[in-house]
Amino acid sequence: MPKHFATILVISFVLLVVCVFASLVLGSRMVGFDGVMDGLFHQDIDSYEANVVRKRISRTIFSLFCGAALGVSGALMQAVTRNPIADPSILGVNTGASLFVVCGMAFLHISNANQYIWLALVGAAITAALVFGIGSMGRSGATPIKLVLAGAATSAALSSLVVAIMIPRSHVMDQFRFWQVGSVGSGTWDGIFTFSPFLIAGIMIALLSAPALNALALGDDVATGLGVRTGIIRLIAALGAVLLCGAATALAGPIGFVGLLSTHVMRLLLGPDLRFVIPMSAISGAIILTISDIGGRLIGSPGELEVGVVTAFVGAPLLIILAMRSKVSSL
């Protein structure tokens, strides 16, 4: 067990509880303690504040679920690719999911989250396989820099296709532009129930894969010597990452950098052991996304700033710092 793990776990849970309470209280309309209690425990009270809290409950749970999914997805992608800056948004997986969703809107006329989710999963899976295949070309195999370049190139190409499909279809553009920014504001109980099986399945795959992924971090030859089937474990872990990332993207839109932020924070605090990093990345991802959502509400008051904009604003400088540190260390 990593040093101070119990302390970090307790602090994380306290932060999580504080974030949940703040999400219920803060926004364009502040809610007092009595209003929170009425909204949570007194369903017979039909005051304005109680109704606001009830609306925020589903939004908060949805935010926690999406943050946990993106955090674990980032940890899995970093482990599978052995790339410290791997993230669904950086490797283009979010863009692949977006392309399939916009194709569904344009050609199949879908507008239901239950239909979005399957299209997003297929798009995320195909894009992940494509990026890994391109990044693996050549004698050196799938190096971190090649995977990032492959992800950037693939994301740019798919983004062009998304624009090409939307421009001649104004009704698709109107529908897609709100989804594309990335938001948890539309979180509903139906969306939460739709998302839950994918979240549970993805996290279970991640936790069961963690010991083998630890061995994989030592190198393919060492992992094979320890009895790990490297190809199969990469495929299984990638499946878990795609389930989590694709489902979150389908329901909330392409929210970037949460997986990168949450996993790096936990690696810094706990070390490289994925048996601890993965579950703690779920908690830290939930905290990061919920804090970003609260910040977006306060910054954009009386409206709100979408959470995808907030995470990009915070995550982009981190990516630059990580890239600079990586370059310095390589010299």
Automatic annotation (TrEMBL):
One of its GO terms (cellular component) is plasma membrane. Its main location: membrane. It is found in: Cell membrane. GO terms for biological process: siderophore-iron import into cell. It holds the Pfam family FecCD. It is a multi-pass membrane protein. GO terms for molecular function: transmembrane transporter activity. CDD domains: TM_ABC_iron-siderophores_like. The chain crosses the membrane at residues 57-77, 89-110, 116-135, 147-167, 198-219, 231-256, 276-295, 307-324. Keywords: Cell membrane, Membrane, Transmembrane, Transmembrane helix, Transport. Coiled coil: none annotated. Belongs to the binding-protein-dependent transport system permease family. FecCD subfamily. This is Iron ABC transporter.
